[in-house]
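Try this one yourself first.
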């Protein structure tokens, strides 16, 4: 290693040490001040009481944003070299914190908060913190203002469950540190490290069950600081709008997705988009059966995955990055469709508007007519994203990631043909007339047939129009294989999510033992999983057929014969026994009765299709 390289390594180590020290300082200050703020808030009556529009059912102190603000400002003054942009950031943080603090104490009207956020955003933009003026300088100013307002309100809305906003904020800030360090922007990395430290220090008292809430003062501060950091680190290293938005949109994808999803759902149900409610992504996951800790952990995981993709996208070529974006957007749409089925809005009597809604016009608008078939529209949008991104990935695999300008021009020219051919075949094969919540073998066959016909039709068009000149036949084969996997996967994702949530929510369920691992037992097990919503957890089967001993039926193991019934009841804490045999013999019933009734274990005979008995 020469002298220049050793100096560079030494400087990098010092810069990383400075970032770590700044984050540790912010974390320690916030960690020490939060319990003091909590004590003052409780004594002064600044608490959050249970309300219908809130998820929690406990009295919790608020104004945790005060400790966060002091930690952020103090660490910034100590560790960040003074620049004009730093002064602008601290001024904006002070103003947005005051707006949130006033709202925490006295409750500001939504329009007054929005006006204040717009004015603060204008001040930040006029001071020079905005999207790089590429490719349209006149667009960067309004987009930057809207960006500040969007992220501030996204974290305000995300602060709806214990530990969610602070944890996601810490993860997002951590990825900002990584991206800034990779691009050599150490001042921005230090600011991001401070934000992450503040969030981690506060998370100690905010993780479920929370002892204090950050309130609007904390969520506003967190939103504005992250919105500023991601703009500051994207300005000098991008000349394309895609590169400018890559890290911000994906690193902050969880709060942005939650905001957009809730807004759309409330508008569809004719509710005020800015009113409080328990209809956020986290609330829907909890309603499905996840505990608060499981919910926030799942969203932490989503933030980590999307943050990795955000940093990765800055290292990809534009066409590859666009394909990855389409694939991520398709996944988010699928998750949104799954969560939208959770019933969180109260049913209103016919002719009456929903709570918080304005008067309903008796006429049906065009958009309402389209939304009558919104599920099919979502399926078409998902297929559009899958077909487009898969076609690009097929080229990347065939040419080992080296897409020359000539290949890219051929790809762009042929993509409309591929889209039209496949979408027409998908519709013709009835993919948009099926219910995909419980797919079976015939549904998978239909997907394979539709994708195969679409690939053949697209290939015929390419042959007719351009005689395959310059096109690779291997690309079409790879595209067919990837399309079968992706389209089929998109159709079974609801089933997979149901299975995951069912498995994650089994902790509070009733342990059940089933007798009979035949066709009837398999159907009853599926009925329990589809309709039980985590109320019962089948821990195993008993079956007298020696050939079935030790096998698994839908991941549930056959534990032994009826002779193991007494031991299984004691070993697994079974509370209910289900006899899943269409015509059980009398000696089996007497054996089950003799084993269960003295121990207070319920038992019953169930048959396929009788879900009420289950």
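Now uncover the answer:
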């Amino acid at each position: 290693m020469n002298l220049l390289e050793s100096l560079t390594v030494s400087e990098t180590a010092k810069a990383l040490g400075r970032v770590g020290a700044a984050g540790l300082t912010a974390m320690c200050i916030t960690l020490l001040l939060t319990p003091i703020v909590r004590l003052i808030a409780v004594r002064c009556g600044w608490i959050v009481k249970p309300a219908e529009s809130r998820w929690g059912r406990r009295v919790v102190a608020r104004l945790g944003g005060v400790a966060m603000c002091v930690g952020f400002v103090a660490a910034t003054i100590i560790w960040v070299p003074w620049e004009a942009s730093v002064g602008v950031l601290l001024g904006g943080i002070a103003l947005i914190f005051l707006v949130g603090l006033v709202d925490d104490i006295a409750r500001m009207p939504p329009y007054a908060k929005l006006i204040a956020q717009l004015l603060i955003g204008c001040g930040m933009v006029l001071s020079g913190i905005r999207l790089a003026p590429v490719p349209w300088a006149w667009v960067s100013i309004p987009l930057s203002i809207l960006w500040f307002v969007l992220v501030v309100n996204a974290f305000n809305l995300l602060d709806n469950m214990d530990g969610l906003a602070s944890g996601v904020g810490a993860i997002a800030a951590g990825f900002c540190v990584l991206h800034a360090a990779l691009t050599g922007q150490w001042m921005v990395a230090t600011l991001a490290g401070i934000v992450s430290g503040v969030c981690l220090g506060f998370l100690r008292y905010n993780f479920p069950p929370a002892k204090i809430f950050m309130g609007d003062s904390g969520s506003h501060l967190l939103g504005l600081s992250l919105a500023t950091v991601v703009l500051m680190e994207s300005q000098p290293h991008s000349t394309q709008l895609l590169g400018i938005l890559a890290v911000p949109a994906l690193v902050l994808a969880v709060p942005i997705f939650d905001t957009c999803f809730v807004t759309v759902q409330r508008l569809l149900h004719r509710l005020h988009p800015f009113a409080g409610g328990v209809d956020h992504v986290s609330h829907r996951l909890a309603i499905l059966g996840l505990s608060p800790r499981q919910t926030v952990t799942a969203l932490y995981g989503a933030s980590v995955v999307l943050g990795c993709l955000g940093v990765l996208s800055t290292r990809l070529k534009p066409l590859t990055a666009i394909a990855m974006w389409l694939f991520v957007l398709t996944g988010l749409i699928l998750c949104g469709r799954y969560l939208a089925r959770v019933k969180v809005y109260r049913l209103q009597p016919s002719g009456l508007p929903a709570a918080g809604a304005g008067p309903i016009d008796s006429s049906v608008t065009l958009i309402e007519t389209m939304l009558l078939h919104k599920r099919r529209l979502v399926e078409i949008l998902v297929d559009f994203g899958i077909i487009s991104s898969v076609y690009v990935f097929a080229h990347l695999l065939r040419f080992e990631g080296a897409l020359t300008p000539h290949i890219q021009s051929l790809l762009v020219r042929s993509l409309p043909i591929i889209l039209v051919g496949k979408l027409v075949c998908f519709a013709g094969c009835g993919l948009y007339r099926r219910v995909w919540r419980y797919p079976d073998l015939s549904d998978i066959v239909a997907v394979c047939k539709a994708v195969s016909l679409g690939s053949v039709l697209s290939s015929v068009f390419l042959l007719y129009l351009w005689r395959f000149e310059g096109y690779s036949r291997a690309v079409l084969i790879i595209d067919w294989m990837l399309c079968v996997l992706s389209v089929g996967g998109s159709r079974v994702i609801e089933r997979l999510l149901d299975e995951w949530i069912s498995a994650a929510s089994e902790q509070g369920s009733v342990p059940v033992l089933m007798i009979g691992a035949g066709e009837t037992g398999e159907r009853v097990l599926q009925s329990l999983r589809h309709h039980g919503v985590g109320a019962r957890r089948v821990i195993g089967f008993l079956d007298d057929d020696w050939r079935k001993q030790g096998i698994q039926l839908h991941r549930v193991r056959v534990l032994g014969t009826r002779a193991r019934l007494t031991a299984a009841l004691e070993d697994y804490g079974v509370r209910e026994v289900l006899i899943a045999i269409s015509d059980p013999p009398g000696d089996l019933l007497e054996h089950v009765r003799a084993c269960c009734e003295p121990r207070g274990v319920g038992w019953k005979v169930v048959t396929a299709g009788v879900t009420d008995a289950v």
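Discussion: The chain is about 65% helix and 5% strand. Residues 1-5, 347-372, 609-614 have pLDDT under 50 and may be disordered.
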